[in-house]
Specification:
With 192 residues, the protein is an alpha+beta fold. It has a single domain, classed as OB fold (Dihydrolipoamide Acetyltransferase, E2P). It is 38% helix and 20% strand. It has a 5-stranded mixed β-barrel. The chain has a two-stranded antiparallel ribbon with strand order 4-7. β1 and β2 form a beta hairpin. α2 crosses α3 and α4 runs parallel beside α5. The longest helix is centred in the middle third of the chain and has 19 residues.
Length: 192
């Protein structure tokens, strides 16, 4: 089944004009940050024959939405409320606006990490793209830090494990627990 899934994914890549392989590293030129867990990149001609910017969804993390009307916003309200209740034994009542405010903070944190960074390394996992046509990846900063991990370790994301892309799942869960314990980022704001 797993081989068949990889085969289907590889067949779909040419539809997006991309030539990405599973478990591979590529040079990515950072164009912009969409939100806390999505950036836009340009690639060399061996990956993309067109000079085009592609969305890259960071694997393993989920930052709050940046728009009240986005379909995940109500779901995230509940998720953040449940995490706070479980981790801190406190009840919080979040609104869509609260989620959006947190989403904008997560986006600002990602932008801060990428400030003055023009070239990064994108690492794919088993599934290089999703059904929306976004590239799925781990982003390695020039100094060797993993962007995905930096965001969750500093308290700006929830872990989001979507098999088969699970290469750094244990690292992200460890970072998430540590950020909760130390009340970093959004967690400090939600309980203080």
């Amino acid at each position: 089944m797993r081989t068949f899934l990889v085969f289907l994914i590889l067949l779909s890549l040419p539809l997006f004009g991309l030539k990405l392989k599973p478990n591979h590293k590529y040079i990515c030129y950072v164009a912009s940050v969409s939100d806390g867990d999505t950036i836009h990149c340009r690639f060399t001609s061996e990956v993309s024959p067109n000079v085009k910017t592609y969305p890259v969804r960071l694997i393993g993390i989920d930052t709050p939405e940046t728009g009240e009307r986005k379909k995940n916003t109500p779901k995230q309200e509940r998720e953040f409320e449940e995490v706070v209740l479980k981790a801190y034994h406190q009840s919080v009542d979040l609104s869509r606006r609260d989620v959006v405010k947190m989403g904008l903070e997560a986006k600002a944190f990602t932008e801060k990490l990428l400030k003055n960074v023009y070239v990064v390394t994108l690492e794919t996992d088993i599934q290089p793209t999703d059904h929306y046509g976004r590239i799925l990846g781990y982003i390695w900063l020039p100094d060797g830090r993993l962007l995905n991990a930096e965001i969750i370790c500093n308290g700006y994301a929830l872990p989001l494990t979507v098999p088969p892309n699970v290469k750094y799942e244990k690292l992200f869960l460890k970072c998430f627990r540590k950020a909760l314990k130390e009340q970093k980022g959004l967690w400090g704001e939600l309980v203080n």
